[in-house]
Amino acid sequence: MSRITLKVNGGAHTVDVDPATPLLYILRNDLNLQGPHFGCGLGQCGACTVIINGAAVRSCILPASAVKGEITTLEGLATNGKLHPLQQAWIDEQAPQCGFCQNGQIMTAKAMLDKNPHPTDAQIRESMNNTLCRCMSYNRIQAAIKRALEKPLGFQPPDTAERVVPLTHGAASGGSRASKKAVVA
Amino acid sequence: MSGNIPSQVEEILSTNRRGFLKTAGLLFVGMAAPDAPAADAPGPYPVVDPRKLDSWIVIHQNNTATFYVGKTDPGQGTGTGFRQLMADELDIAFDNTTCIMGSTDITVDQVGSGGSTAMERDSLPMRRVAAEARRVLLEMASARFGIPVDGLAVSEGVITVKADASKHVTYGELIGGQKFNVTLSGANAASVSGKAKTKTIPELKIAGKPMHRDDIPGKVDATTKWAVDVKLPGMVHARNVKPPYACAKLTGIDEASVKGLPGFIKVMNKGNYVAVVCEREEQAVKAARQLKTTWEKPATAPFPSSEDLFRYLRNAKPAAGTTPLQEGLVGNSEAAFANAAKTIEAEYEIPFQGHTAFGPAHATADPSNGQMTIYSNDMKTYGMRRGVATFLGMPQEAVRVVYMQGSQGFGRTAAEDAACEAAWIARELGRPVRMQWMRDEETAWDTKSPAFLVKMRGALDAKGNLAGYTYDALSCDYNHLGYNEPDTTLIAQLMGQRRAKPAAGSAATPSDMYAIPNRRMNGDVVALPAIWETPLRTGNLRDPNGPQAAFASESFIDEIAAALKADPVEFRLRLLEAGTGDDSGFRRARSIAVLKAAAQKYGWDARPSGKPRGAGKILTGRGIAYTFRGQSMVAQIAEVEVNRETGHVWTKRMVCAHDCGFVVNPESLRTSVECGMLHGLSRALHEEVRFNTEKGTSVDWGSHPTLRHADVPESMEIVIVNGDPHPDRPDLPLYGAGEACLKPTMAAVANAIYDATGVRIRRVPFRPERVLAALKAAGV
Q1: Could you tell me which residues are beta bridge partners of residue B403?
Q2: ipTM field
Q3: Nearest by CB to A174, which of B403, B712, B713?
Q4: What is the pTM of this model?
């Protein structure tokens, strides 16, 4: 075990772990950042993607000791309570089905657009090609990326109050009191 | 805590009331942050009584409503659909409602999800109870104002005296926080009813409108809490150690190989089931890899290799004790063949295909208070509760399943494995246990869709009519797994539990309305040499067996059309219109409607398929397939580009005409159909379970590939069809929509490849090497 300090979403956290521990487990289990998901543990599917120094990185195969730089997770995309334009586009296009992969889809898309703000269709397909979805929401995801592109430069996300926001979107996801307590604990 | 309402329901209600105040209009606050720990509901957990109105609907003082339904929604939008329908029947604003699903201690048992039954069947009692709640509220208002019910109007949860608009009362003021205390008629959740009538289709105002799904914001802003996210005080992590070979017998465990690892707690073992438990997740992953175990291989091979599978099936006899499936017998097909001017025969091969859920199997089990709480994304939580209880020998009332979101499994969680494993370990250890499978386990050992070998024959008479037709399918489906059965779940098998009579499994026959004068359709189930403790366990995969049957039958109809030099759409219409009778769901009329709608949307170029090949590297073609599931009709057109140098197939355009009756939420229907088509495309182009004679060799996304972004068509178009002869009728039914959309896809793509290349591919999937070999063999 050794003490490792990670800079995540603007904060710093020190954990005492085996330095070979994949970053994913530390994010999920120690830092309670559960946007990144375990899908394969092999770097194949992208469910665990985070952004480090501007690059989309598979946190399931990245030893914590090898992390150099500031980590951004899905939880860190929104600013001042406003969704990132990609997140808003995901809602507008109704992109997810089950949603389990969407962390990887959104984070991979963000890293792509940060490097190349005006990708062609072919570049979108190529950049996203190793980020998998078993519900096959690919067409919606590509539409959402293009929708985010359509916004003029300097685009600001719309006021969330303008949108139809369900009262309790967590509840409709099948949550219950016991389950919510369990995850908040 | 009195009256008819189950105590757990009452507890969650108070939480929900707080939740409404906290969350209304806010994005970043999830469902109510509970104020009391889970131990507040220590059990037991009696079954929720569906005959009590209070089990289904609660009205809060702030004039909002919570619906409790016994369904699960893995991401196709049924939860939003239930809210639309129930809000409509209750006459309350959609935004003032929420819907709780699937947790066994607070919702009635409507089985959970499966079979595309959400709207078609299980929304009906929801509508009836919501209508009954509205009726009761109107009676309460009538008593309050001293005015007959027909002197009252209701809109968005406010009841107003028609003659004096200044007199009004909200639902919340009438009953907020109190119980209805109304007993419904009917024996079970499917049949419960009140005195009120439900609305007709034209009376519905919210259902029928496109609505954003309510589960999506939390899935993109990371506020949704998933079953994999559960953390409990004292929780430990478990990982399985799977047998390295099918049917292997455990001969030794060297616990010393892991004993010194940090965080190591215990090796769990019974029979051939082995797992390790550690304090931290990564420790359990490491310990499971490091644990030294020895195994004895079975004396005989448990199955042929995947390369030899269809040779094996050709020589296989129906499994003992199974009964052939015989459907749609018309005329005398053998006489038609005896008199045929020409006979056409073909065989089609569909391999085992995996569910390969994106998130491997997982569950967390809490044995506190002598009870067992399971946190799971199981699609059939109520069956899981019974299965876990039986497996552990606990009373059902001691077990509850808390339903949470998880990765879509398309039937994988109907025969879920992790819950029994987590629960058994949790009880042995006396601590909460989080179990999660690794990718290689999930891909190799999940439930499989059965392989099919289908032999088809067509008899053409001298006039060029399809006079005779036979369909003979062999389905490799013996010992098909049931829903969370305690004696077929993998841990039970590995522990040596065997049911005396394995499930017979099932084959399938084509679903079409073709009028063929002499027709025979038969399906048999065959068994592999080993049926227990093997990674080739079969289980329901999205429209079980439907895509296999449709691949064969709709490819074959295309072959007949090509032999007759008939346009494939025209030929299908001719077969449909040759019959005059129809069923109560108007399947013939609606079949014709979807075929015509798809062709029109595509701009179908009527001509025989197998067009003259171009000279270039890329060959293009289009193909159509039509089928139905239940009463949901679908016709699909695929346009492909086939690279003659590499064998690569790109489906450039897909068109789907879809008729599922009244559509509750056109927006979520479109996305579900779109994704379903791509699932069909993935099965057509990529998916095949590989194995040698010892074990599964498909173990990850490389060895069991799936569709990717680059495979997505340039254009996907969906036409929502209402082909009912009386499209505006007030009782237009709602039919299922989760599965029909992928059923014809494999055939549509195969038919398009034929049109482009003149080469018929009768073996799924159409991977480049297979397509290229077929092209070479045909001299293309």
Answers
A1: B376
A2: 0.94
A3: B403
A4: 0.93
